[in-house]
Amino acid sequence: MATVAETQQPPDVLPIQNGDALHNSKWSYRDNILGRAGPFTDEDWTPGEPIISNLDNIRVLVIGAGGLGCEILKNLALSGFNNIDVIDMGNDRLFLDYTIDVSNLNRQFLFRQADVGKYKAEAAANFVMKRVKGVTINPYCGKIQDKDEDYYLQFNLIICGLDSIEARRWINATLVGMVDDENPDSLKPLVDGGTEGKYSSFTFGYVADLVVGFKGQSRVILPTMTSCLECQLDMHAPRETVPLCTLATIPRQPQHCIEWAHIIAWEEERKDITLDTDDPEHISWLFNKASERAKEFNIPGVTYSMTQGVVKNIIPAIASTNAIVAASCCNEAFKIATGSNPNLGYPGTNNYMMYSGDDGVYTYTFEHEKKPDCPVCGNLAREIDVRREWRLQDFVDHLAERPEAQIKKPLIRTEGKTLYYSVPASLEEQTRPNLKRKLDEFLADGEEVVVSDPAFAIDFKYKPQTATPHRVAFIADPQLIDPHTYPGRPWPLSSLTIAFTDKYLKRSYHHIQRSYDPDTVYFLGDLFDGGREWNTGSKSFHASEKQWKRYGPKYWRKEFERFGGLFLRSSQVTGGKQERAEKNIIASLPGNHDLGFAAGVQVSVRDRFQAYFGQGDRVDVIGNHTFVGLDTVSLSAMDVHGSDPKLWQPTMEFLDEVKDKKRQAVNHFLGRTPDYPRGWKFFHRTASQPEERLLIKPKYDDFDDLKPASELPTVLLTHVPFYREPGTPCGPLREKYPPSVPRQEVDERNAIRVAAGYQYQNVLSKGVSKTIADRVGNIGYIFSGDDHDYCELVHRAYTSAGSGIKEITVKSISWAMGVRRPGFQMVSLWNPVNEFADPLPGSPQAIRMPTLQTHLCLMPNQLAVFIQYAFYFAITLITLLIHSAIITMRERNKPIWTPIDSVLPVSEPEKVHPKKDKARSRASSGSANGSANSTTKSEGNGFLVARSDTARARTVSPSVSPIGHYGLPPSVELKGVPLIDRAGYYGKRTDEDAWIDELDFEMKPIHKRRRGFAMHFLETFKKDMLWVACPAFGWFFWLWHVY
């Protein structure tokens, strides 16, 4: 990998010679190479002096004078290139981002302490020209965008040693656009080199930025002839994306503060100015804003160099990686300039070299094919998969995430419509409402969309295609409540707990099926709470406690039917919708509450569980992904000394064969084995393509001659989470304890506690975890349960991880499991493949994007609902109490008498008062036979008293009194009546007269003896409660029955 001149002694240690002798000795090794043909030299190549002389006339442009640029300039000068130009940023000495900083000295070896503050291009050129005599290097301190095509046309060769992806894309597009088919000199070969790494922040009393980078690549691009940099953009590490909600509300890392300043603060405060990531003033503004944000949230670590790296997507690396990649670039430049050996990109050869020093050291080359849908050198529109429910904003976000686009400020238009312009501000304001509209309002399926970015001279052409991903709902720990859950809870509280918990599970699951309609539902264990305790009827079964002996096989079947009613009944599975044949429910993964844990597992209990639910160790192909389920609660028995091998051996044997089982499952899924029935397991299309290009199952005659199927992404399912070091944080979505601020590497409160107890262990042991990772291989994701709360982390300690295994511990779906907001994990799978399981062009796997997307879905807070019930009940109770008190007080203050305008008089007989006497007018009436007698008092009070048969006979006129009551009118003359009656003489008073007087006295308005206040209040409150409670409880029980 060393350059031609690096293999000889440096010029400053050569023997002292003069004139031509010195020159000849200095370049003798180079002249020997160019003076004769080698084993790989083209037959038409002629060695000798013309080639050597021509090298002196080759004019080379080096773009970048940083870590790669310094190495490239040194190597070119030592390889015999005498005419070199170098261009690097630097147009304002007030800003030090493109001048030499002390931090540059560790890997940019051409600079010294005295050069700090100088322009990199000037300092590097002066150093090389001083050390290598006869070399001319012309520095230019400025942007590459400052130069026009005429400037670049004067060079024979261009070498790009930039760390900015955006700048490399610009020069690539410029060189492709310069090519004129009628002018061969317009084609300028581009040698591009790059390194990969990332910033990591560590806190040891202070914060330091550690640059970690052991990967790199070099390539030769012949514009319009070979694949360009834009074709190869998906080979670069994709830019890390952070949810906007995290940036706006809870930043946890220095990079989040920088992205906030970059994406949010700039748009709010300086949206009228287009951000230029090469402008020192703009970078300084972002750095100051990010520093303020970091100080507000107590997040250390924001530095100026990190701001540059995040904003410009700079990928730094260590010095040795720079040296290796630069040497490769200069070797290719030497071969292109002299033709002495085939270079990368030569017809019939590979054009891309990869170097990796992460895990060992290795390099390899391959041919990266030109893409017909490349936005720079292609002529076709690129197909892109979108969701039906996407809005234009979702499409914009997706473009920013895609590695082949990475467009942050898009201009989106169709042939006749402008959909969205991010700049200038006036057009952005006019088109901003379109971001909230759905894509199908603008576009027909397959209509071409043109997307551009002010940062690039490129138009991206896309054809949105509707994608239908396969959806999987992971449900963890329903753990049906039973006598084992709360053994001391009395009736009826125990029965109410079971009833309300089951109703919550039933409604939640029905809502999942109706609203989300998953294609597959996968349960992650702990289906029952006391499943391991129920007697199997086998002689080998041993109950842990005497109280569980009475729960036998009959009770188990009852619990299984209860589980089926909640989750397996047709109305629950469909969510009330029309049934779909491809719905799949897998509930065979056992948990420690189903079987026990490790040596606590009983074989008869496991056999019973598997008889009802199926094998826990299984391989399924779901949505073009391979799902591997493992009975880890039984496998953990291998850690217990002296445990029965029957417990862990079946799972271990499965692991020994799992790779073969994965390949077999993929072949079965693709219909490539003769002993497997034809037909898709799922009825979803595996690729969003025109009808003639859909994946059709081929009918093969000879399966042995087929190309082996590729491996699909692997998803591991286990009830107990993988091992992690104690205190490993679970992230911000964990409910019980959010992460500490500032974020810590060890956060005990936010972590799953690494502990064990009777029939449980919070995480698998380190040995079991490593065994699984090694045996399964190529694990991309792990989904687990058991903890009941959410946890998300990346395991980097296993050989199958690659860039890491992402594990998500799914929340429990039951509100009785210690979490206020139960939940489930919704997973979308989208991995279009061909008949060999190879990813289709443009698919997520083909462009190195995730084929699996997850989202935590939260269910209602049932405890909060009960608290609301209690609150509203208290309000209702207080209202009714106040209402009853007011009514009672008003009734007690009201006198009780008969109204003057009563329809009929009312009387109430009381005791006789013999001493009462009163003068009054009388009117008599009687009947002929004297069998019926009555007396009417025609006064304002209008009382009517019935007389007994023994009373004195009187007659009453049938006429009506003027005041509307029965009696004699006051003005009526009584003819034929003795005068003595009108004169008022009544003769001697009898006992009957006294009784009548006393009775008349009692007919006056009087206050009755009242009931007590408490009795009246209670009666009124009882009536009010009945009026409110009857309809309320009726409505509640109707809802309970219906839902």
Descriptive keywords:
1043 residues, alpha/beta, Rossmann fold, Structural Genomics Hypothetical 15.5 Kd Protein In mrcA-pckA Intergenic Region, Chain A, eight-stranded mixed beta sheet, six-stranded mixed beta sheet, 31% helix, disordered N terminus
Summarize the structure.
It contains 27 helices and 28 strands. Helix 4 (67-78) runs parallel beside helix 5 (120-131) and helix 4 crosses helix 12. It has 1043 residues and is an alpha/beta fold.
Write the layout of secondary structure elements.
Layout: H1 19-26, H2 28-34, H3 49-57, E1 59-63, H4 67-78, E2 83-88, H5 120-131, E3 136-141, H6 149-153, E4 157-160, H7 165-178, E5 190-203, E6 207-221, H8 244-248, H9 254-269, H10 280-296, H11 304-311, H12 319-338, E7 352-356, E8 362-366, E9 382-386, H13 392-401, E10 411-413, E11 418-421, H14 425-431, E12 449-452, E13 459-466, E14 470-475, H15 493-516, E15 520-523, H16 553-567, H17 570-574, E16 584-586, H18 592-595, H19 603-613, E17 618-622, E18 625-630, H20 632-635, H21 645-656, H22 658-670, E19 714-718, E20 756-757, E21 760-761, H23 766-776, E22 779-784, E23 791-795, E24 805-809, E25 823-829, E26 852-858, H24 862-892, E27 935-936, E28 944-945, H25 979-983, H26 991-1002, H27 1013-1042
Parallel strand pairs: 1-2, 1-4, 2-3, 4-5, 9-13, 14-15, 15-16, 18-19, 19-22, 22-24
Antiparallel strand pairs: 5-6, 6-7, 7-8, 10-11, 10-12, 12-13, 14-25, 17-18, 20-21, 23-24, 25-26, 27-28
Helix pairs in contact: 4-5, 4-12, 9-10, 9-11, 10-11, 24-27
